[in-house]
What we know:
This protein is of the alpha/beta class and 460 residues long.
Amino acid sequence: xxxxxxxxxxxxxxxxxxxxxxxxxxxxxxxxxxxxxxxxxxxxxxxxxxxxxxxxxxxxxxxxxxxxxxxxxxxxxxxxxxxxxxxxxxxxxxxxxxxxxxxxxxxxxxxxxxxxxxxxxxxxxxxxxxxxxxxxxxxxxxxxxxxxxxxxxxxxxxxxxxxxxxxxxxxxxxxxxxxxxxxxxxxxxxxxxxxxxxxxxxxxxxxxxxxxxxxxxxxxxxxxxxxxxxxxxxxxxxxxxxxxxxxxxxxxxxxxxxxxxxxxxxxxxxxxxxxxxxxxxxxxxxxxxxxxxxxxxxxxxxxxxxxxxxxxxxxxxxxxxxxxxxxxxxxxxxxxxxxxxxxxxxxxxxxxxxxxxxxxxxxxxxxxxxxxxxxxxxxxxxxxxxxxxxxxxxxxxxxxxxxxxxxxxxxxxxxxxxxxxxxxxxxxxxxxxxxxxxxxxxxxxxxxxxxxxxxxxxxx
Length: 460
């Protein structure tokens, strides 16, 4: 099991094995506890989910100042800003592409005609058209956008556990108070650079490694294993209480056992929590609501995220991929990518508003960089970090506006440059976290939470 990306599995254990373990514990109380015996005790009941649930420390380091949660939607590959959010209709054909600007719910704001439904909810979000950084590599772009810190030396592609700095979700988890759900959840998989770095595995995400749009979608490890009823579950819990009694016999090993005991209790609580089961059970939604979001990966991930923040999860990250349109950019956007996006985002915003959750839920729609101004010979656009657009909505931020601007070809920022560090500082600020806070590594080295980022005041 990876320490940076815990995998949550529950092993089966027979009633006989639990009974035998109880006897072994009684015996070990009468003698010194060996290393091998300690390992045997650690396997009581076969529960390994608690290793994941170390992300929920019994005592959080401090409480967040505001009760605002975050849905962080990452469009993997690089959204083409000049086709969606920042069109240049007067540019040459090889620059402007095949899409036309359309009016929106906010007079004076136009977006691409590939987003007709989104155009009707522009009064609920702000478009930031002047994001900029200097790295055109996917993995390094993930890192700076997820953490607010530029990536150092190394390869950041193909390795999910490559954080050199804690991501936003892990920072939130570090400060969150315990609740029915883990404070940081990632769906439908672990998002690259979405790890905790030196904050430790306990601040990593609970990863839902399944697509909620799938007919057989289920969240693993929130139920007791097959064949383990409440009675057997209770016996396992009793076994864990007896483990705790060994602490007084062996202090050094006892500390480790005592720590694990808390996480086993949390595992049991999650598996027996009605609130957790209901939050993860997307089938409880009506067919009408599910269809409103769209029976697509992005649609159902957004619906599941709404359920999770409503149940108290502080930070939900969603990965939506395949936006790396090096070829057939027009076809990819019009036929494959934008229709599901254009259905899911308005549905989420409207749903949050109707349920009274928009003011307490910050929605961020971001990407690692934009696409080149000029269309290439394969009718695609390539990587372009110099200028790109993102969206922010809810959580009390101002909506219905455009912040920043690019030049006539959408190639460079012409007004109000915004860095990933600024974006991260703003997200933390909205969530009630001091973005100027100093973290400390296990070696007590001071590390700024965000490298020089400043809050985007136009949003506050």
